[in-house]
Structures are given as C-alpha cells and as structure tokens.
C-alpha cells in the first residue's frame, strides 16, 4: 500500500503538533508549513523531529507563509499531498482587535490563497478548514451546524470568510473540502496567552511560590472546553468520510472562566480569591458570552465523541505545569519554550 501524504499549515501550533503526531503514528508522510522566525518556533515538534540523515524520515518542514501565494503553489505542486489540513491562522481573538487587517490577511485571505493554489495546480486532495465556534459569536447556545453566524471579532469575521470559501470551493469546483467547526480545545501545549493555559500556569507558579497574582478579564464568559488531542482525531475522521461535509466538535458542557479558575486553584489547594485580580485590559471590545456546542452530527456520522471534560482538563493542565516546573523527570508532553515577549495586553 502506498503511504499517504499530508500537508499541515499551522504545524507548529497546538493542534498542528498533535495532528502531526497522530498522522505519523498512522504511517503518513507529514509536511508542514513553517514561518521563518528569528528564534525557534518548533518547540512543540521537537519530540517528533528525526535527523534528516536517518532512514525513514517522514516529517518535513518547509519555510513558507500564508501571505505568500506563490510559495503555496510551488510547495503544493511539489508535495502533492493526499490531505491538506489548514490550521494556520492568527488565532488570538483579543489580538485580532489590535491587528484586524493582519488577521483578515492571514486567517481570512490565507484560506483563499491555499484553496486557490490547490485549484490552480489541479490537485486531487482532501481539504480540512479549521473553522471555529467564534463564528457563532452572539447567537445563543446550543450551537450546531445549522446555527446562524454572528461573529464578534475580526478573528470571528475572518473565520466566517474562510468557512464560506471552503464551502464555495466544494460547491463550485467539486473539491473535497470540509469545515470542522471546533469549540475551544485545550492542552498543556496551548499557547500561554489563551485563558486556560494562563490560569493553569499561574495556579502552578503561585502554588510553588514563583508568582503571587493572576490578572484576568471577564470571568463570566461561558465556554465548552475539550481536550485538543481528541479534536485533531476528529479532524482526521472528517477527511476519511465518503463525502465532504461540515461538522461541529464540542463536549456539550458549559463552564465559565471563573469555574476554570476555581477548578485549577482547588487542585493545588489554594483559594483563588486570594490570588486573582481583575484587569480591564483583558476585556474585549465585544465579547462572546456563551458557546456550548452540539456535536451529535459528528457522533452519528463519524463516531466521534469527547472523552475529557473541563474538570479533568484543568487538572491535567495544572499537573503539566507543576511537572515542568519541578524538573526533568516529569512525564508530561514537551512544552513550548517560553519567550520574553509575553504580551501585556493580549494574555
Ligand atoms: P495556534 O495559535 O496554536 O497555532 C497557529 C498556527 O498558525 C501556528 O503554527 C502559527 O505559526 C501558524 N501561523 C500563524 N500565522 C501564520 C502565517 N502567516 N503563515 C503561516 N503560518 C502561520 O492555534 P491552534 O493550534 O490552537 O488552532 C489551530 C487552528 O484551529 C487555528 O486556525 C485556530 O484559529 C483554529 N481553531 C482553534 C480552536 C482552539 O480552541 N484551539 C477552536 C477552533 C478553531 P507560529 O508558530 O510561527 O506562530
Ligand atoms: P477564545 O479563547 O477567545 O474563546 O478563542 P481565550 O482563551 O483567549 O478566551 C476565552 C475567554 O476567556 C476570557 N478571558 C480571558 N482570555 C484571555 N485570553 N486572557 C485573559 O486574561 C482573560 N480573562 C478572561 C475571554 O474574554 C474569553 O471570553 C479561542 C481561540 O483558540 C480561537 O482561535 C478559537 O477559534 C476559539 O477559542 C474557539
């Protein structure tokens, strides 16, 4: 049997690293798009890296950027992947208010550039679009595939554009293109400025005496938090289906940001009220109040169900932080190297 080849944009991100791991375990050859950076951005992939001089190398990284159409064309025409997973994006909602044009360019137009590269080359490939529950925005829960979109940020608006671009290429050109509408999914590899990772890090650091206070914005927002490795498996399942369709992945459960704080601090035996302070700089100009997904279509059509729910997720994430602070004997998945550039406003 010939080996399948996948191309992943956003391979250095949380989901990209878990997806690369999954596809390599399934025997795929995996190619990833890597943005050039003045420092290494491959911390989440280091454990998968094999010296290119070894035999049976199956993970390849290629410099490129979602703003660079011609590079996408040359890369895809050379790799000719069986499956394309488009995960690359400026994915931070708060940052999208600071950088709306850049977010539109990478998260929105980046999608069209990739789809158009596939079409121009005449590539017969299956395409996964990383769509988001942020597209539902102000539409009240529960949200499913039929729920109207009402984005509340430049990021959400860019994702709506990407969603319709993928659907349009499916309808106009018969491309096998699917939208995975994923609700929040987290892990020890989550970026440090997303709220769950920020809380888990702080709980661990405060418990070990490295820090004293955690500053947060809106504690009342409701989110449906699942576990990222389970969600990337759902992405793969979507591309194995007989026909291309769109699916929600979610746990169907609801917790507030405040609940996540309490669960995390309880786990290290601290009273969160002693350590959490409000900082209005972390508020968004318009907020998404409540996201709670209905993933019954994915369950019925793909056999996908979530197994990890928010309370366990909080414990897993706090434990990973404790382990990474306590030394090299830790059994956690590798964490990204922390930079010195923790944004003041974006966290
Ligand atoms: P991350 O922010 O962890 O990763 C984003 C990835 O995109 C990184 O690899 C980043 O590279 C890359 N990237 C950003 N800009 C560019 C660019 N101009 N050119 C090439 N690559 C670029 O996101 P997640 O892994 O959490 O999410 C994956 C995708 O799923 C994203 O599209 C996100 O919007 C979407 N999504 C995520 C959800 C979640 O809860 N995690 C829920 C729903 C949708 P670098 O490492 O160099 O920054
Ligand atoms: P979200 O994730 O905006 O849902 O987007 P994030 O973790 O950033 O925020 C979740 C909620 O927490 C509130 N909040 C804070 N958020 C951050 N980041 N920092 C804080 O200090 C803070 N205090 C309170 C936010 O207001 C918000 O309500 C994520 C991203 O992964 C998107 O790419 C993805 O599409 C969606 O999830 C689904």
From TrEMBL:
Catalytic activity: GDP-alpha-D-mannose = GDP-4-dehydro-alpha-D-rhamnose + H2O
Pfam families for this protein: GDP_Man_Dehyd
Enzyme class name: lyase
InterPro entries: GDP_Man_deHydtase (IPR006368), NAD(P)-bd_dom (IPR016040), NAD(P)-bd_dom_sf (IPR036291)
Molecular function, one GO term: GDP-mannose 4,6-dehydratase activity
EC number: 4.2.1.47
Top-rank taxon, per record: Bacteria
Cited Gene3D superfamilies: NAD(P)-binding Rossmann-like Domain, UDP-galactose 4-epimerase, domain 1
Annotated positions binding NADP(+): 127
Cofactor(s) this protein requires: NADP(+)
Keywords: Lyase, NADP
HAMAP family the record matches: GDP_Man_dehydratase (MF_00955)
Free-text function comment from the UniProt entry: Catalyzes the conversion of GDP-D-mannose to GDP-4-dehydro-6-deoxy-D-mannose.
Family indicated by similarity: Belongs to the NAD(P)-dependent epimerase/dehydratase family. GDP-mannose 4,6-dehydratase subfamily.
Protein name: GDP-mannose 4,6-dehydratase
Source organism (scientific name): Actinomycetospora flava
């Amino acid at each position: 049997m010939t080996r399948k080849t996948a191309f992943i944009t956003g391979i250095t991100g949380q989901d990209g690293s878990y997806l690369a791991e999954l596809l390599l375990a399934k025997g795929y050859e995996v190619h990833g798009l890597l943005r050039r950076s003045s420092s290494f951005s491959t911390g989440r992939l280091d454990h998968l890296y094999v010296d290119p001089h070894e035999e049976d190398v199956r993970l390849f990284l290629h410099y490129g950027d979602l703003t660079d159409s011609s590079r996408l064309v040359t890369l895809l025409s050379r790799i000719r992947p069986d499956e394309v997973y488009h995960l690359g994006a400026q994915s931070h909602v708060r940052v999208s208010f600071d950088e709306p044009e850049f977010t539109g360019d990478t998260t929105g137009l980046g999608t069209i550039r990739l789809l158009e590269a596939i079409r121009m080359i005449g590539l017969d490939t299956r395409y996964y679009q990383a769509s988001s529950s942020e597209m539902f925005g102000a539409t009240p829960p529960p949200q499913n595939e039929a729920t109207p979109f009402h984005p509340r940020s430049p990021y959400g608006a860019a994702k709506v554009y990407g969603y319709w671009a993928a659907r349009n290429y499916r309808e106009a050109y018969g491309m096998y293109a699917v939208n995975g509408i994923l609700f929040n999914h987290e892990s020890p590899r989550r970026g440090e400025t997303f709220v769950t990772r920020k809380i888990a890090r702080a709980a661990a650091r405060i418990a070990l005496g490295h820090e004293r206070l955690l500053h947060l914005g809106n504690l009342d927002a409701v989110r449906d938090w699942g576990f990222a490795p389970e969600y990337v498996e759902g992405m793969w399942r979507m591309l194995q289906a007989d026909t291309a369709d769109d699916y929600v992945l979610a746990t169907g459960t609801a917790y507030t940001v405040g609940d996540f704080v309490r669960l995390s601090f309880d786990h290290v035996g601290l009273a969160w009220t002693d350590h959490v302070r409000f900082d209005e700089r972390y508020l968004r100009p318009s907020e998404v109040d409540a996201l709670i997904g209905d993933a019954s279509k994915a369950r019925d059509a793909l056999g996908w169900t979530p197994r990890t729910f928010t309370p366990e997720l909080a414990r897993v994430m706090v434990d990973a932080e404790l382990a990474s602070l306590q030394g090299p004997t830790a059994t956690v998945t590798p964490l990204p190297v922390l930079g010195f550039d923790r944004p003041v406003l974006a966290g």
